[in-house]
């Protein structure tokens, strides 16, 4: 008898990577690296699971030690990985974080990775299709659309075939990945989604504007969230505009904060919270990651989250993390 399919309310589809972080100084001088798991969609998957949402992550990994570490890490964080396919030939992607003079620079090694070989037929695997059929929400990003043409084709099929779930897409615009490529598939993906998350700074480059009202007119998506760095997040839902300021945070590292915001907002959506509470939960989750050296971190304690979600505007504005 096959094992029963685990309950999954949300599914995240996209690349995971091993992150190697060295100490301060030029990469040429670093002798010891600290290993962790990164990648936008698996960061969101872990964030959703941490907020109590039954979540699965679907992708391809190399059948190597790094791939096994990704699986173990996500399982330990409560994420279902039964839809992951292991590639016996292609490797798990990785990136190296170089920290110098208080700034981080990323060096990516993902060409030819197992995730980049994802293609539309991947969705026909029973382990994948069954999970997608029972999901209430499926989340992906523009990074997965960018890593290869076949991966973009897979997401286009995911977005255009009949579906019961809400599709959520975080733009995550990476110009280097789209060099000499037409971004039309990414535009189509965004316009097919029910929920779009986008940073005002990346929208300036991708869409030629960071103005939330103009972006809403361009995309016409049912729910649009525009994140304005450390200042605020603005959401549009059925034409209603809601803005919530970000918390005051002593930042340790910014990488992963956008994914954490997405996890908080999507968890609040699935839990039926008001728009103000959804945006606040996004900010709270992002703040936890901003104060940690890794790409992900546990969310604030449940009692603290509940208190701040219900706080007055004045109490919220006065909160420091």
Structural class: alpha/beta
Q: Low-confidence stretches at least 5 residues in length (pLDDT < 50)?
A: none
Shape: globular
The strand line-up of the biggest sheet is 6-4-1-10-11-12-13-14-15
**Helix and strand pattern:** EEEHEEHEEEEHEHHEHEHHEEEHHHH
Mean pLDDT figure: 92
Query: For the terminal residues, how far apart are their CA atoms?
Result: 49 Å
Biggest beta sheet attributes: 9 strands, mixed
Number of strands: 15
Number of helices: 12
> Taking Cα atoms only, what radius of gyration do you get, to the nearest Å?
19 Å
Key terms for this structure?
single chain; 321 residues; 4-stranded mixed beta sheet
How would you describe the overall organization of this protein?
With 321 residues, the chain is of the alpha/beta class. It is 36% helix and 24% strand. It has helices at 40-50, 65-76, 126-134, 142-146, 149-160, 184-192, 200-206, 212-219, 257-270, 275-290, 302-309, 313-318; strands spanning 10-13, 17-24, 33-38, 55-58, 60-62, 79-80, 85-87, 94-100, 103-109, 137-141, 166-170, 195-199, 223-228, 232-237, 240-245. It has a nine-stranded mixed β-sheet with strand order 6-4-1-10-11-12-13-14-15, sandwiched between helices. Strands 3-2-8-9 form a four-stranded mixed β-sheet. α9 packs antiparallel against α10 (275-290). The mean pLDDT is 92.
